[in-house]
Amino acid sequence: MQKKSIRKNYILNAGYQVLLLIVPLILAPYLSRVLEPDGVGTASFVESVVAYFTLFATMGISTYGQREISYIQEDKDKRSQVFWNTKILGFCTSAAAITVYVVFAILQKKNSTLYLILTLNLVAVFFDITWFFQGLEEFGKTVARNAICRVLQVIYVFIFVKTKEDLPLYVLGLGLFTALGNLSLWAYLPKYVNKVSLRELRPFRDIRVVWSLFIPTIAIQIYTVLDKTMIGLITDSSFENGYYEQAIKISRMLLAVVTALGTVMVPRIGYHFGKNETGEIRRLMYRGYRFVWFLGVPLCFGLIMVSGNFVPWFFGPGYDRVVPLLGILSLLILAIGINNVTGIQYLIPTKRQNIFTYTVIIGACVNFCLNLVLIHFIRSVGAAIASVAAETVIAVIQLIIVRKELSPMRVLKEGVHYFIAGAVMALALWPLTARLSPSMLNTAAIVAVGAAVYFAVLIIERDEFFLSNVRKVLGRLRRS
Fold this sequence. Notes:
Elements: H1 6-34, H2 36-58, H3 61-71, H4 76-107, H5 112-117, H6 119-126, H7 130-135, H8 139-160, H9 167-184, H10 207-224, H11 226-235, H12 238-274, H13 278-315, H14 322-329, H15 332-347, H16 353-401, H17 408-413, H18 416-435, H19 440-461, H20 464-479
């Protein structure tokens, strides 16, 4: 099987990851006004509860399946066995999760209808095979089908969600189009998978490995979903969850641009690991760190500077608390970006998921403990601080653990040019943000000036990573 271009796969996956988050972003100004902060907060809280059942439906199956497929990309018979073993196990866990969840939803006295509707989220997991195509580095297929479903979701919301009473219809759209996108991928399967004899199937053979990959997934949920649950339980305020939901939505969208490379690199690192090509793995890893600094620094600094101008016109009145939340959560772009490279792109493909689990559990404990204290005093802002602290702890510990293979000093050195350029950009934007009133045009102007200053400084610094990619793009344009 011919190896796919990392650059092309990154563009496809980054585009799709941004689309996954840009759909809610496109809808945010509309929904923030139609559903109001408490409606947005209610939907966010219900989704956070459903996410726990989704977690048990997926277990570590997607991570395991993608990794195992990456090792045997070129052997159709072996990948067929891996696919069916993995998917049969997934059918079992999903069916069990759906059964328990439906009972849970029926027993709820508050928001029972919303919970029942979101059973579709678990149905989507039941049919999910995106991990298989990601393991093969066939990102184009997953992107095309799911992108269409996301566009349909936007159209659906604008047509059917008109008032605050339409919250159930909005929740219906969340699960329905995800399920349709996952189901549609099965049409591609016959080309890549053979029929396998029942005697050859051993779906529970690697259950211990799957479980070892599931444990860090549980821990990760502590600081990606539990934040919202704890805000709702401790503050008893759907408004606080509404503010947090809008802020995390923006920061996660920008983060997706940085971490999209991870999904592309996991199968590639797995491929080279299977061939024992350690030198190539090391080269790709340092390239990954530099990429995080290159994109993460301007996105982080830029979000801090632009949030005061962006939030008032984008979300409308009543969302002032989103501004400080965005300033704090912007730091997640760098923290998660770095530990995504070390943990997801390196430790998982090289079969050291136990080390990854250890670091993530520590971060989860930090997050949980800080949430218990900080949410009581500073509400959603406390949850934001706890998340940033947890991710930073994970990034530092992982770099210390792999220090004999990947130099932490070199990792930091890779980011020097970008921090200098980011600092100059922030200083240039400071007077601009103070003078310009909130509006779409002014936000666009701030972003444009920031980008121009950042790239200008990189040119002055003669940053080779940036300049080499510019030369490649220009060369292709000339040839076309």
